Amino acid sequence: MNRYPLDKFPSTILRPEVVAKHEDHLALLEKEIEEYRRIGHRSDSLYDWILRIFENLGLSTIKKQYLGSLAVTKTRLLLFTVLIDDPVDNADKRNFKLFEELIKIPFNSKYVEQSQLDTKEREYFELTKKVWLNIINEVSTYPDYKKYEEAFKFDVEQLLNSMKYSKFANTYPNGVNILENDTYLHHSTFVLVQTDLDLMCSKDFDEGEFGLLRELSFISGKMARIGNLIRTYPRELLESDMSSEALVKFQKEYGEDFRFKINKLLNRESRYLKFEEGLLEEYESNYHLAEEITKQIKSIDVERFLQERNFVQKAYQMKADFW
Prior knowledge:
Number of domains: 1
CATH class: Mainly Alpha
Oligomer: single chain
CATH superfamily: Farnesyl Diphosphate Synthase
Shape: globular
Largest sheet: none
CATH architecture: Orthogonal Bundle
Strand content: under 5%
């Protein structure tokens, strides 16, 4: 397995007792990652990287014995998201037929039509199904699973809907616009799903603050989307991924016939630097909004929550550049 270089990861450790078990956590995921390697195209190091992030995150109300399980489950959720997302976003591997079957796995599996899939597509489908079953089998053991089950299902549906929008964007490029991109795509970070999982394993959380916490998680999802976009937009431009906010903004500013050249990305042309500056300004605006929401929440450690948002942003900033 390819490992993520630690010199490109924040030196700060927020949960040392969880991070200390990183190798054990990774071992639980190794078989699924190895299977993905045979059929996917993203580096193994992505899962090592995101596991290290999730090991440092989580609401202050989580019972300690569930921190490791939550980190592993959230990493599996990323793998599940990648498996569904790739047949939509990657131009070379685009497969809408497969995608339509994959999105049925969580809640509509009885409607799956595997007969129309070829051997490779079935192998891909079976791995995606296996990853989801591993997720739900673990999640259903959490103490307050039933209490937050419907919230979890709703938020997973929003995650799936973000990828449906990606399909729409790549099917109808002339219909893509910044407003809808901003409305749908941040759900791909599944921060609200993470919050649901944390609450399933929490104690002493004031349920009267659930709405405020969801507001905070919603804004955090937008912040995570920005952090990710800063590192992925060059690839999205070069792949002509119409679900990318970057592609929409560049075409709006420079015209639909604008073409993206790798040398201009490599040389950090001013237009790209300007785009990144705009993203960072948007991140700061969302961060200040999050700060205002935290002033109304008493049952979680809000300072820690904001510290974790800074940690995630730092991890994105340090992540190896695409180019």
